[in-house]
Sequence to fold (192 residues):
Amino acid sequence: MLLCCVQSIGSLQKKYSIGSFELLSKTAPIQACSLLVLGPIIDYYLSGKLILDYKFASGAILFILLSCSLAVFCNVSQYLCIGRFSAVSFQVLGHMKTVCVLTLGWLLFDSELTFKNIMGMIIAVIGMIIYSWAMEVEKQQHAKITPHSKNSLTEEEIRLLKEGMETAIASPPPPPPLPLKKDIELGGQTKE
Fold:
């Protein structure tokens, strides 16, 4: 389902010529509102405690702000990738993010790495390498089949562009505007 969603977002983004940040600015308020409404309800359902009962210390607020900043960075990077990569490439990047999260969790927070986690990361990295290799082979085969065109412009279009540049350089700048008669009579200043 996520692959179809990412692919359709990418195609809609190209169809309507919407940039990554414009797409993010349209969807972020909806996501934020849904999290503000559903977040406390789901949190209460999972933990049995209200979020307002938590005693916020300065350290907790600092880590909440850090987590929010990292989440914003993650969302921006995902929206930058949606329009530029295929759905499969987007999934490969998602698996790479998961590998990085597990590795950084182990390095920074001394979280436990089980055999299952390690094997999953190894398989994911091997899959990424194979996918990259297959994409490179496909690019090389495509480059052999299609001849490289030196220029997409015709010789006539290049000649017209050169003539336009030469006439733009050769023509002097326009003279400054003359003062209007009413400005002189009223003693007004002219704009320069």
Remarks:
- The chain has a mean pLDDT of 77.
- The CA atoms of residues 54 and 168 lie 68 Å apart.
- The radius of gyration is 29 Å.
